[in-house]
Amino acid sequence: MKFNEFSKYLEKLEETSSRLKITDILADLLKKSDKNEIDKVIYLSLGILAPSFRGIVFNAADQMIIRSISLAFNEKIEKVKDEYKKLGDLGLVSEKLSKNKDSGLSVSEVFNRLREAAIEEGVGSQERRVNKIADILKSVDPLSAKFITRIPLGKLRLGFSEKTIIDALAISKFGDKSKKSRLVKAFEVMPDIGLIAKELPMHPSPKIGIPVSPMLAQRLNSPREMLEKMGEVAVEPKFDGLRVQIHFKDGEYFAFTRNLHNISLMFPELANLSKHLKAKEVILDSEGIGIDEETKKILDFQTIMTRRRKHDIAEIATKIPANFYCFDILYKDGVNLMDKPYLERRKILRDTVKSGELLKVDEEITTTDPKEIAKLHEDYIKKGLEGIMVKKADSTYVPGRTGWRWVKMKQAESAQGKLSDTVDCVVMGYTVGKGKRAGFGIGQFLVGILDGDKIKTITKVGTGLTDEQFKELKTRLEKLVVKDKPKEYEVNKILEPDYFVEPKVVVEIAADDLTISPNHTSKYALRFPRLVNFRDDKEVKDATTLKEVESLYKLQKK
After folding, report:
1. What burial letters (b/e) apply to 501-540, b meaning 16+ CB within 10 Å?
2. Residue 319 catalytic?
3. What kind and span of H or E run contains 112?
4. Which stretches within 253-312 are classed as H helix?
5. Which of 57, 196, 145, 22 lies closest to 504, judged by CA?
6. Higher per-residue pLDDT: 306 or 27
7. Of 417, 461, 420, nearest to 548 (Cα)?
8. Among 238, 332, 408, 456, which one carries the catalytic annotation?
9. Does the reported pTM lie above 0.70?
10. pLDDT in tens, 454-480
11. How far apart are CA 354 and CA 275, in angstroms?
12. pLDDT digits (tens, 9 = 90+) for 220-246
């Protein structure tokens, strides 16, 4: 497919907000895409060059792209900056300044050249990137230049995600959505939507080096209700650590976060995995925990997250040793274990992992007694842990948060006046502060939750932040300010902030309770919201959903 034809599809997608219409446009696009190119068509329509676990991203700054535009269209940098001030979108600047005729580049050619620019590194890499992007812009028509410019900036955002792509793929390949569930399952086991489109695997098995979408827990605080919904259960401790999926094969290891980012470099100690396993290849689900060297006590989530810095990791690793509490096994020596019952997987896990300094199999106690569940919860809280995970004894490993298979209990059943769990929200925009906060440049920020591909408001937050948090939030958000409200945002006019921002920052919010709201587009509001943490381990797609909020609302009424 020629890139200028592809750009016309992107233009149609940009001009509609209807989910059904977007799906139809994508389905038509995918029908016309060659099998050897369909993965690249999908990646570029999402504004990416690879799935997140591959780690191939531009993160290009405005100034770099301004230089590329200047070079491509032989315009002075000052003129490009002036146009940017007027239009507020470098894509529109490229479209306006381009006088080029299309040279007939294909989608694959543009994709490959963008990827070459993205993986440039070392001395002079910035300049080489500028030149390579300029060369691409020179070779395409104005409409194509608009969309190509937005991709390195991470600003293509056409208002849909992989979920919509799956709908469109089902229609384009099978005629309707009847086989969509197979594609969904394939994507959960192998979350590379380009690869799924290319290979159409109907019965995929986990692959070393490709993270499996993690199984997630529901929320309940009543042990009796847990047993009513799940029958016999196993109780495990809940740690305040970093969810880490560990892959190992032939001396090579990978570590992935719950949002599928490759964090292998964070944990150099995993290079010695072979000494701790009775297996040639394996995929483990675990919680990465930092350990205080002097007291040997478990450190909190924020401490282990300091390992995410790129430099001095070896030194940090000696100061903050990591243990991995393994609680599940998904794959071993060529065998997919996801469809085996929980208790059978646990037996295989104990037979596979040599518990020691690096890996430990967390304890589990099987029970049908609600009093025992409540006591275990209290015991773990006293030990400084977050609470318990309660798991259906015969459940298979099912990615996502579906059914009553896993439940987390983080708060005592008798607790009153506080929401039973925190909510992970997307920051949508902010309002300039008054008085002391005027110095921070931010007084309140608006947050939302997910409802399909839409982000709907649930609260404004303006209290409970330290001065440092206000400053950090302003630093993060001012880089993400956009001229117009992002297409996926649903915001009541009376709640619109002074500045909208790109959906990039996820924050953990605590509140006293949930109420029904006529003003918020989610139809719910968090009462007395407080910022707990910046959730840098989560992406927008990992934020709390409207369905989860509805469950929380019902939970607090019991």
Report:
1. bbbebbbbbbbebbeebeebbbbbbbeebebebbbebbbb
2. no
3. helix 107-118
4. 301-304
5. 57
6. 27
7. 420
8. 238
9. yes
10. 999 999 998 778 888 888 899 999 989
11. 8
12. 878 999 999 999 999 999 988 889 999
